Amino acid sequence: QVQLVESGGGSVQAGGSLRLSCAASGSPGSTRCMTWFRQAPGKEREGVATIITGVRSPIYITSVEGRFTIARDNTKNTVDLQMNDLKPEDTAMYYCAARAAKSGVGNCLAGTNMNYWGQGTQVTVSS
């Protein structure tokens, strides 16, 4: 069982930066991967970045490559998303999610494969 709580959202001007944090409690060491998703009104939910247990290189969608960085801190049980050079198209509700290790192999950028979800944090980027 894993509980996830996001924080760090807010409103910024285009070109600005935000750092989102996902705090995990329960048994976070049992997760196979931690992923940040986002969803804007009228848009499909999409996986933004994921970090997989035992794999050093994270995976990003093309639209955020070079601007976003995902990092896991096992000592603090957090997964952070540093977002730089933000664009209006980044405006969305951002969610932290995790896949349980016992669930086995699965695409960690697919929301249907995730077992635990946080409540989300809003990111708004103005022009």
SSE order and pairing:
Elements: E1 2-7, E2 10-13, E3 18-26, E4 31-39, E5 46-52, E6 59-60, E7 68-73, E8 78-83, E9 92-100, E10 116-117, E11 121-126
Parallel strand pairs: 2-11
Antiparallel strand pairs: 1-3, 3-8, 4-5, 4-9, 5-6, 7-8, 9-10, 9-11
Which features characterize this protein?
127 residues, 11 strands, globular
Radius of gyration: 14 Å
Compute the number of strand runs: 11
Give the N-terminus to C-terminus distance in angstroms. 40 Å
| Protein structure class | mainly beta
SSE order in H/E notation?
EEEEEEEEEEE
C-alpha geometry? globular
Could you describe the largest sheet, including whether it forms a barrel? Answer: 7 strands, mixed
Question: How is this structure best described in words?
Answer:
The protein is 0% helix and 52% strand. The chain has 127 residues and is an all-beta fold. A hairpin with a 6-residue loop joins strand 4 (31-39) and strand 5 (46-52). The chain starts with a strand and ends with a strand.
Brief rundown of the structure:
With 127 residues, the protein is an all-beta fold.
